[in-house]
Amino acid sequence: MFENRFKTVKNLSKCIGLLIGSFLLSSCFSIDAHLEKKSQELSKQLANEPMWESLPVREISWQSALKLMLSNNLSMKQAQLSLKQAERSVSALFMNFIPGINLDAILSKELSELSNIRTGDLSYNANILFSSPSITQFPFDYYTAKASVLRANKAIDLKKRELISNLYLLVENYRVNKLNYEVAIKQIYNDPDGLQKKEIEENWESTRRGIATQFSELFNDVNAQWYVNPETMPRINWEKYRKASKHLDKLMVTMVAMEVEASRLNVLNAKAGFFPKLDVTFYSPSLFSSSGGTISGAYLSGGDLKVDMRLTQEMDTRLNKWYSYKFAKESHKLVLEQVRVDLLKRRQKVVDLVLSREKYHSWKSYKDKRYNFIMSQTPLSAEEYVSQKKELMDIQKEIEQKQAENVQVESALIMEYGVL
């Protein structure tokens, strides 16, 4: 009898070992197979995608581009998804009060008799579970969840500003590069073999392709060569920005304030660890149970439900809570100091941006006057005509280069204050 049992255990061990080994091997092979299959699918998908040169060219207005970008951009969708997740975390706090139900089916049988299974060998259970969050911890969790919703909403507003700033910068970049290309073509005087013109056109084509790619990324649409007509873009109202620059933007200050609030909440959570915890648990017998043909269960009457209330005070004998609280307070002080420095730096950044814009405006005013003066002069010879035309083009090109630098300033101010 002992030998038979030993053989049974030995055979069972072999079977389990073979099953585990087969599972591990099949898992490795299946992973490689799945990766190979997915790689082939992606390669096939890429092969079916049209080449960039064959895509239709679509130039749209600023308003159409704005609508397309804000509805399709991946980072905007991610920000909106984060908001939904934050809102879900608030409702989940209350959903935790709803009881859950577990359904269990259990088979208890000797391994040698698995070929002969009867109804009585199976057991069924339906249990109801109540899991109530800690009453003392719930207010902190609720406050944290609501703060996450507010932060997610503000993050969407900030992301919108960032995208508009990027779009503004890209449209201006497209306009300046296109104008530089046209000026370069006009400045060709002696090019009998056409090599100079060919090089300029190839450089412009490469630049234009890169700009179109950036538009497609902003719009999350690779089905066309996208461009935005620069003439449809609204002009910046500098008087409004000059007035707004006297104070930091409310959205930016709010985002900083939320960092301070998050740090303060960490201090409160650490302090709450010193107070007793009150846990309330509801439970009942099985709603339904069937084992060996015997059926039993509860009908959730007053006598079936029970409550377990537990008030726990954990003594901080190792001083872990004390050091956590002390660390949280010290960290909060550092956050306040860092916030002060960040706000001062941001205020100075705005001052520098506005000053840079004013310097550019004065410089451009002088160059415009110089351009108009040269235009008013009448050339007396062919050499003077060529020299005059070249100087005008040089001034125009210099203005466009400086304006490209100024666009960076404009884009940064849009990021700080939005479109005013």
Structure notes:
Helix 3 (74-95) runs antiparallel to helix 4 and helix 4 (138-186) runs antiparallel to helix 9. The strands form three sheets. The protein has a four-stranded antiparallel beta sheet, with no helix packed on it. The longest helix is centred in the last third of the chain and has 57 residues, at 320-376. A hairpin with a 2-residue loop joins strand 6 (288-291) and strand 7 (294-296). The chain has helices spanning 2-48, 62-72, 74-95, 138-186, 195-219, 238-244, 250-272, 320-376, 382-417; strands at residues 57-60, 100-107, 122-129, 225-228, 277-283, 288-291, 294-296, 306-312. Mean pLDDT is 81; it is low at 1-13. With 420 residues, it is an alpha+beta fold. It is 66% helix and 11% strand.
